[in-house]
Amino acid sequence: MSIISKTSAGTSSSSSVVIEPSELVLVTGANGFIAQHCIALLLKRGYRVVGTARTADKAKLVEQTHHHHPCLSVVVVADITSRESYLSVIRDSEPVAVVHMASPFSYDVKPSDFEATVMKPAVDGTLALLGAAAKSGASCVRRVVLTSSLACVLDPALGRGAGKTYTAEDWSPLTYEDGVVAADAPSAYRASKTTAERAAWDFVAREKPAFDLVSLCPGMVFGPWLEGAGPRTLEEVNTSNRIVWDVLSAGGDARVPATRAPVWVDVRDAAAAHVGALSGAEVGGKRYVVVSGVYCNQEIADLCRGDHAAGTEKSSCRGGISMTDEERRRVPVGQPGKREAHLHFAVDDGSRAEMELGIGGWRGLGECLEDLVPQLLAVERGLRDS
């Protein structure tokens, strides 16, 4: 396993801002996969939270998921590119910090829609939020935590980049125009995240707002949904967890699907990193790459099949992944024990992330799948039984 966590050259110097429990935090895109876990952890640690969602139905779902917690409120911001909408929320609630997570992430987008549905919401939405936070005054927002992506670090021109070790000082060279004319949705997404994060750092350098900025770049995010927040159909499974489902459902005689991205993080660790970025005294002005480790789809298959003789240690699961024999036989055999870490890029040691963001150790892939796989299979069973 390999992990990165380093400060980024060209960002502002670190500050000693600390957002204490009981203070109010604004979480944009509150109905998102990582955001729901982040809100749960914030509430558990004693923070007050105001979330934003694009529709009243999504806002209601967030409130229901957290059992209408008295320290949580959710408001509708239909247009995530509207500075005035964010300004209204900030003035009404006066949060001391913002976790900005609202950004589109879907591979089901037509090329003709890349600018309108991928690029503009990511870039303009980030600038709208930062502009509103800056305008609200020094007495309110003191820190903004931006959910970025490992896509902002990787150079797609290097491909799998065997022999390359990435750190948080690396930047993808993709531009806004690259996203508009991208060949496919994943490429457009990578460009949107890169240009949005660059725009955020440029904003801070240019405007010198009262708040500081922390940027987190997670790898592919796997893990369970909170109770009540999971998908109702397999089509609703989020893009990252869909990778796991594609392995589970491929068929015993089928090929193991090609690994789409070789580094990952458990959603609960990603949430912990966000909360840690609020409470960390010396993290302001820094950029972190947050990943649990490397993986490949063959490893997912081995773990789900319980093929420990293939080089998947039994200790990587707490008690085994709960599946019926029929479901286990549907997982492709592939080449048990084969791993791909030597074929692609590496990432640095994560001791700084653990120390500065207070992660407290990264979950292993086996533990993650033990909690996720039964949820995926339950969705399928519910469809069969309905």
Keyphrases for this structure?
globular, alpha/beta, 386 residues, seven-stranded parallel β-sheet
Secondary-structure-based class equals: alpha/beta
Low-confidence stretches: 1-12
Taken in chain order, the helices and strands follow as EHEHEHEHEEHHEEHEHEEHHEHH
Taken as a percent bin, the fraction of beta residues is: 5-15%
Taking the sheet with the most strands, its summary is: 7 strands, parallel
Count of helix runs:
12
- Mass-distribution shape: globular
Q: Roughly what is the average pLDDT, rounded to an integer? A: 90
> What is the C-alpha radius of gyration, as a whole number of Å?
20 Å
Number of E-type strands: 12
Q: What is the topology, as strand order, of the major beta sheet?
A: 3-2-1-4-5-7-10
First-last Cα distance: 41 Å
Helix content: 25-40%
Task: Provide a concise account of the structure shown.
The protein is α/β, with parallel strands linked by helices and 386 residues long.
